[in-house]
TrEMBL record:
Transmembrane segments: none
Low complexity composition bias: residue spans: 11-22
Keywords from the UniProt entry: ATP-binding, Flavoprotein, FMN, Kinase, Nucleotide-binding, Transferase
GO MF terms held by the record: ATP binding; riboflavin kinase activity
InterPro entries: Riboflavin_kinase, Riboflavin_kinase_bac/euk, Riboflavin_kinase_dom_sf
Domain Riboflavin kinase stretches: 49-187
Organism: Suillus subaureus
Family classification: Belongs to the flavokinase family.
Enzyme class, first EC level, given as a word: transferase
GO biological process: FMN biosynthetic process; riboflavin biosynthetic process
Protein's recorded name: Riboflavin kinase
Pfam families assigned to the protein according to its UniProt record, in alphabetical order: Flavokinase
Record function comment: Catalyzes the phosphorylation of riboflavin (vitamin B2) to form flavin mononucleotide (FMN) coenzyme.
């Protein structure tokens, strides 16, 4: 990290969510260059775990095209558990995609496993979105799209606030670091055990 440091700009114009924070007190350059690679306590604590579920929606498609990081969007009516309990930001946890009951599926056995994910929850200040979204990047290479399929997500921890970037490269660099943070943070036993939580389909 570091080359793109200083490319973040303060984001006072981000619309307010119920408990929004874009970290106005965090010196941006310091924040980007000194991020820890493990975040959160050793045992998830309140408000986690937060359970989300719904059919995967089409986003704007910029995640895969612009950022090399495909995201699966949850529908608006699945967001209240996050809105009620958490501020906007980047989170980690587990997700599982399953075909809707009674439909045939092009997903492989690996695709339907419980998999680690990172989630962007908020307004995507870089793209100046006008509505709040929950976009989940599952850390797994899917061979096919899975729009319309059911997705469950168990959110286990908070990584960082949403930030406003003036360069796509800096956003990509930080998302890559978010993925490392998520994997390392969830390698702790009290997080790993959520992979077999009854919330997910066996
Ligand atoms: C782990 C992760 C972190 C992200 N962090 C930010 C961020 O700090 N600021 C921001 O504006 N967007 C952030 N994004 C959101 C991307 O801008 C978003 O995924 C992109 O808008 C693609 O959306 P689309 O698929 O709906 O087009 C993040 C996305 C992910 C997966």
């Amino acid at each position: 990290m570091g080359d793109a440091a200083g490319e973040i700009i303060a984001s006072p114009s981000v619309p307010d969510s119920s408990k929004d924070s874009v970290g106005p007190n965090v010196p941006d350059e310091y924040f980007r260059t000194s991020r820890p690679d493990i975040v959160g306590p050793d045992v998830p604590d309140a408000p986690f775990p937060i359970k989300l579920s719904g059919p995967v929606q089409h986003g704007f498609g910029r995640g895969s095209k612009d950022l090399g990081c495909p995201t699966a969007n949850l529908p608006d009516d699945s967001l209240p558990p996050m809105i009620d309990a958490a501020k906007t930001g980047v989170y980690y946890g587990y997700a599982q995609v399953t075909p809707s009951q009674g439909t045939s599926s092009s997903l492989s056995d690996q695709d339907v496993c419980v998999l680690p994910m990172v989630m962007s929850f908020g307004w995507n200040p870089f793209y100046k979105n006008e509505r709040m979204t929950a976009e989940i990047h599952i850390m797994h290479e899917f061979k096919t799209d899975f729009y319309g399929y059911d997705m469950k997500a168990l959110v286990l921890g908070y990584i960082r606030p949403e930030l406003h970037y003036i360069s796509r490269e800096a956003l990509i660099e930080d998302i890559e670091f978010d993925k490392k943070v998520a994997l390392k943070s969830m390698a702790r036993p009290e997080y790993e055990k959520y992979m077999s939580d009854p919330f997910f389909t066996v």
